[in-house]
Design goal:
AhpD-like, mainly alpha, Carboxymuconolactone decarboxylase, peroxiredoxin activity, CMD-like, elongated
Length: 179
């Protein structure tokens, strides 16, 4: 672990300010989980990141199911166990079946839109651009803002996976993983 979680006795006002948009439980160092506890070592960056991430999670025009499909493909492609574990639970809550989640790892999808979302992740990961063919398929199902939210979701979770893997953030215990 290169950047360990910030010990609870070092959580100061700047940390609490950085987490001010989180629930009271998530602002508690014992319940925050390893990722937040690591990120708060840089409170200003954490606050800025959370604002962006909250849009993607709670303000995005992209349906939750498609968001989780994309995030899980990113987590798989980036070999980010922390992100994968966390979003398997969220994906299930958003309507992804176990079979769909298993297919994400193989790059397989059940319908045209899901295939286009997985292709968008793969193309952005490989070339930093979505092909015309994939964009056209996405355009048949998603409006412009949804497509924009998809691109930023893939980029945000790719960046987060890089940070998690580089910092050595360990998956949360089962107690935290259920949150």
């Amino acid at each position: 672990m290169r950047v360990p979680p910030l010990p609870a006795d070092q959580w100061d006002d700047s940390v609490h300010e950085a987490l001010s948009t989180m629930s009271a439980e998530r602002r508690n160092p014992e319940a925050a989980g390893n990722l937040l506890a690591t990120l708060v070592r840089h409170p200003k960056l954490t606050r800025a990141f959370l604002r962006f991430n909250f849009h993607l999670l709670y303000g995005s025009t992209l349906p939750d199911r498609l968001r989780e499909l994309a995030v899980l493909r990113v987590a798989h492609r980036r070999n980010c166990e922390y992100e994968w574990r966390h979003h398997v639970r969220m994906g299930g809550e958003a309507g992804l079946s176990d079979d769909v989640i298993d297919g994400i790892q193989r790059g397989e999808a059940v319908d045209e839109l899901d295939r286009a979302v997985l292709a968008a992740v793969d193309e952005l990961e490989d070339k930093s651009e979505i092909s015309d063919a994939t964009w056209a398929t996405l355009s048949e199902h998603l409006d412009e803002r949804q497509r924009m939210d998809l691109v930023f979701t893939i980029g945000c979770y790719g960046a987060l996976a890089m940070a998690i893997n580089t910092f050595g953030v360990e998956p949360d215990s089962e107690k935290h993983a259920e949150r």
